Amino acid sequence: LEFRRVLFRSGTFRYPVSRRFEPYVGGGVGFASSIFGFDDNSCCYSYDTDVVLAWQGQAGLRYRFTPTIALGLGYQYTGMAGSDYSLFGVRTELDAVHSHSAVLHFNMRF
Prior knowledge:
- Helix content is 0%, strand content 78%.
- The chain has strands at residues 2-14, 21-39, 45-64, 69-80, 83-87, 90-94, 97-108.
- The strands form 2 sheets. It has a 5-stranded antiparallel beta sheet with strand order 1-2-3-4-7, with no helix packed on it. The chain has a two-stranded antiparallel sheet with strand order 5-6.
- The protein is elongated and about 60 Å long.
């Protein structure tokens, strides 16, 4: 299974609580395309693609060292709906995908 493209429309809300600390929360919705295939390197090759609904959410906290440099720690969740594929005429269904990530941000404004 290979994920080729993910397209999101998302937004982030930032709320500075002081000159240094800035919590944020955000989310988005979009589409993800994937390829599911079989190749035994001799005689048989088959693949199929699918485009499914995808969504994401994020939250975290940034600390500004200077007006142009910040470091942050956050959480990001990404989900994708289940996919349907057909290989060699056999239909295959895959469950939804859920990804949880810890994120370290380094921001520098020019």
